[in-house]
Design a protein that fits this description.
The longest helix is centred in the first third of the chain and has 20 residues. The radius of gyration is 25 Å and the shape is globular. It has a 5-stranded mixed beta barrel with strand order 2-3-4-6-5. It is α/β, with parallel strands linked by helices. The chain has a domain of 121 residues. It contains 6 helices and 6 strands; from the N terminus they run αβαβααββααββ. Strand 5 and strand 6 form a beta hairpin. The N and C termini lie far apart (91 Å).
C-alpha cells in the first residue's frame, strides 16, 4: 500500500514538474488601432502614399511665435510621422477609419470636423495648419489635403505639441 501511494505521489510530482516546464502559449497581439478589420487600401506603413507638410527648420513659424503669450508659444518639436488620415470625431466616437469610411470621413472634414492622424501604434494626433495668423484668418486650410488622403496612410511632417495628453501636429506648408 505504501509503495502504491509513493508511486502515485512520484507520478503526480513528475506531471507537475513537466507541466511547469511547458512554455505558455502567448495570446495573439491585439492591435492598438480600433477596428483593425477596417482596412486601408492606399499606402502602407513602410511605403506611405503621400507626404503632407514640410519639415520645419524651427518648431514654430514667426506668426506663431508672435501670437504666443509674451512671444513664447508652448513647447513643440519638429517630427515626421507615418499614419492614416482619419476623421478624428468618427474614429474617437465609433472607431471608423480605412477605405470603407473614406466617403463619410471626407464629408465630416469638409463640414468642420477635426482631422486626425492615426499611427500604427494607435496614437491619434489632431492635425492643424501651423502658421497662426494665416490659420486664424482663413489663409491656410488642411481640409483639402485631408480629404484627398482620407483613409490613406501618409507621412506627415510638422511640429508636435503635447498638452495634458492631447497630441497635435501643426503642419507647415499647407495652402487653401
Amino acid at each position: 500500500m505504501k509503495l502504491k501511494a509513493l508511486t502515485v505521489m512520484v507520478t503526480v510530482l513528475a506531471a507537475l514538474v513537466l507541466s511547469a516546464q511547458e512554455t505558455p502559449k502567448k495570446a495573439p497581439a491585439k492591435s492598438a488601432i480600433l477596428h483593425p478589420e477596417m482596412a486601408v487600401a492606399t499606402g502602407t506603413w513602410d511605403h506611405p502614399a503621400a507626404t503632407i507638410g514640410t519639415k520645419p527648420s524651427t518648431p514654430w513659424s514667426t506668426t506663431t511665435v508672435a501670437a504666443g503669450v509674451d512671444n513664447k508659444p508652448q513647447a513643440g518639436k519638429a517630427i515626421t510621422v507615418v499614419g492614416e488620415i482619419v476623421d478624428f470625431s468618427c474614429y474617437l466616437q465609433l472607431g471608423k477609419h480605412g477605405e470603407k469610411h473614406r466617403a463619410c470621413g471626407q464629408k465630416c472634414v469638409a463640414n468642420g470636423q477635426p482631422i486626425g492622424l492615426l499611427t500604427q501604434a494607435g496614437t491619434l494626433y489632431m492635425l492643424m495648419p501651423e502658421e497662426h495668423d494665416p490659420r486664424r484668418d482663413g489663409g491656410v486650410d488642411a481640409k483639402a489635403s485631408a480629404s484627398d488622403h482620407m483613409g490613406h496612410i501618409v507621412e506627415v511632417s510638422g511640429t508636435e505639441a503635447d498638452v495634458a495628453g492631447y497630441r497635435g501636429i501643426y503642419v507647415q506648408g499647407l495652402t487653401k
